[in-house]
Design a protein that fits this description.
The chain is an alpha+beta fold. The protein contains four helices and six strands. It binds a DNA duplex (12 and 12 nucleotides) through loops.
DNA sequence: GCCAACGTTGGC
DNA sequence: GCCAACGTTGGC
């Protein structure tokens, strides 16, 4: 089983939105970056776990744990003219933007602030902490996973 | 609000 | 194929 980190701007979709979603599940739509897409399409499996991270908050926080509940989903927003993620070049026969469905596993008892991650030994190479890192879907090593969960009170 | 870093677009 | 211009992300 692999571990991941999913970044989201809470103004767009927050942890509480996941808590309120039917079945506490959601399609992870709107990702428009090829590297992120490739990770979701090629490397994620049902049952993998991911950290749910709020960017653009003060401070940015790791909020909780989600699981990958479905893979190989064509992001419906690419075909939706009314969506801000609409892609005029997307072809329904060969969808460009593939995504996943996630389900809530559990909230971290203590959400972990980004500044704490930055000063924690063992996380020096975490993708999230790399300079200029903007990737919204990232791999997390087993070691990093264990450290972050412990910081979060698990 | 600022701005560095990054990804994409498009002219050549 | 190069690279300048542009738009976006996201920490601060």
């Amino acid at each position: 089983m692999k571990h991941w980190l999913l970044k989201t701007d809470p103004d767009t979709f927050a942890w509480k939105d996941l808590e309120n979603a039917p079945g506490k599940k959601t399609i992870w739509d709107g990702v428009r970056n090829y590297q992120a897409r490739n990770l979701m399409r090629d490397d994620m499996s049902v049952g993998d776990l991911a950290l749910f991270y709020h960017s653009q908050s003060d401070p940015p926080l790791v909020m909780g744990i989600v699981s990958i509940t479905k893979t190989g989903i064509a992001d419906p927003t690419q075909f939706d003219r009314k969506s801000k993620y609409y892609d005029a070049d997307a072809n329904p026969a060969e969808p460009r933007w593939m995504t996943i469905e996630i389900g809530l596993e559990r909230a971290l008892p203590k959400p972990v602030p980004l500044p704490d991650l930055r000063v924690t030994r063992g996380l020096e190479n975490m993708v999230l902490l790399r300079r200029g890192s903007r990737l919204s879907v990232q791999p997390v090593t087993d070691k990093e996973w264990t450290i972050v969960l412990r910081m979060g009170g698990l």
